[in-house]
Amino acid sequence: MHETAQQIEKLGQQTKVQVVDVSDAKQAEEASRSARAGGFTVRAVVAAAGIVRLDSLRNPDPVSAQQMMAVNVDGVYNTLQDLVAGGSESSALIVGSTEGFKGAPALNTYCRSKAAVLGIARAAALELGPLGVRVNTIQPGTIRTPMYQPEKMGPGACELATELQRRTPLRRVGQPEEVAKVARFLISADASYNLTS
């Protein structure tokens, strides 16, 4: 985050870095309040926080499932509150996943959380669009982020990673930079008309 802030500051923009547990509505609200008190106006938010853990209907882990739903779903909802408070001429980008509409074995809760995120995005676009707030989603497949470490996720994870890659039309894992380029466009003024979920 600090590296990103430095890059933004090189462009002549002011930044404020805050570490927030987006699954905690009070923390998210306080971060928003703190930014506004510091003179910042929120013009764009990217709801990209997410976690993935293996789970299935046959081998449930209720604690892990609750954590995934809290971060992946509640976190998006809490992040959008920034825009509601910020007014018009703003943009939200919600990072979902192709697994939210395709599904994947051993990723039951992750898939349902990303399906819920798509529903939040669609509802938010309809609610906030008339106020001048654009809401979009990106639905990437498997991306090589620090979260993508199948060798550390437990039995069957490496096989699942191979299967997910096989199901991808390009047959490869994506790079974060590829998603970032699309994200940058969607939150920019270049996407200011008729591009919303």
Automatic annotation (TrEMBL):
Q: Which GO terms describe its biological process?
A: siderophore biosynthetic process
Q: Which InterPro entries does this UniProt record tie to the protein?
A: DHB_DH, NAD(P)-bd_dom_sf, SDR_fam
The UniProt keywords, alphabetically, are: NADP, Oxidoreductase
The protein's matches in Pfam families, at most eight in alphabetical order, are given as:
adh_short_C2 (PF13561)
Q: One GO MF term, please?
A: oxidoreductase activity, acting on the CH-OH group of donors, NAD or NADP as acceptor
Concerning its family, UniProt says:
Belongs to the short-chain dehydrogenases/reductases (SDR) family.
Q: What is this protein called?
A: Uncharacterized protein
Species name: Penicillium chermesinum
